[in-house]
Amino acid sequence: DQQQLLKTRIQRSSLIEIRPFNLRKNKLITELPYIGKEYKISFELLITEFPSAADPTQSVIHIGLGGDAAKYGDRNPAVWLSKDKLFHFTSSISGNNNYWFDTEIPLEENEWLEIEISQTLTDGKYVYEVSIDGASLHTIENVKPEQFGPVKVFAGDNFYSAAKAKIRNLSIYTRKG
Q1: N or C: fewer beta carbons within 10 Å in the chain?
Q2: Which H or E run contains 175?
Q3: pLDDT value of residue 7
Q4: Cβ atoms 11, 174 nearer than 8 A
Q5: CA distance 167 to 123
């Protein structure tokens, strides 16, 4: 089982929050000494209301060096919710400070979603992957993986409005790699 293999290969850095909580602008959950070349970030999200045209992109989670996207490592990774009822995922991939992709299938309100964002060393390559409810939606090789630190973990960053949503079972596993 790939998840069990990942848990044995990546040292557990932090289990951050278990009980559901509302996202809030500039909600700093913690600061970690680093996020390594290998990591797995997982959480469950309940969207209570989608963004409007007046505020079209709202922050869900943002892990990084503290800036918005000025330097490599500011988004490693980050997730937003769009007015189009889609997720917008970003990360520092292959030298791009703001590598991104959007999900294609519209999301629903008031349903818990399991989100997993990982980067693992597989067959000598670092592979970034995003899954929702166990289904892999996006994978890409990261040819410039780095360890970043210290990193801030926001549930609603300080650059965008927070999504109207709740998070539970947020966990971060990492290793220096």
Answers
A1: N
A2: strand 164-175
A3: 41
A4: yes
A5: 33
- Encode pLDDT of 63-118 as tens digits: 999 999 999 999 999 999 999 999 999 999 999 999 999 999 999 999 999 999 99
8 Å CB contact between 35 and 148: yes
How far is Cα 119 from Cα 51, in angstroms, rounded to an integer?
Answer: 29
Compute the distance between CA of residue 106 and CA of residue 121 in angstroms, rounded to an integer: 31
User: How high is the pLDDT of residue 15?
Assistant: 59
Name the residue with tokens 């929050």: 17
Q: What pLDDT does 18 receive?
A: 81
Contacts 24+ apart (CB under 8 A), 92-95: 92/64, 92/146, 92/148, 93/128, 93/140, 93/142, 93/144, 94/140, 94/141, 94/142, 94/143, 94/144, 95/143, 95/144
Pairing outcome for strands 125-132 and 96-102: unpaired
For 128-156, write each residue's pLDDT tens digit.
999 999 999 999 999 999 999 999 999 99
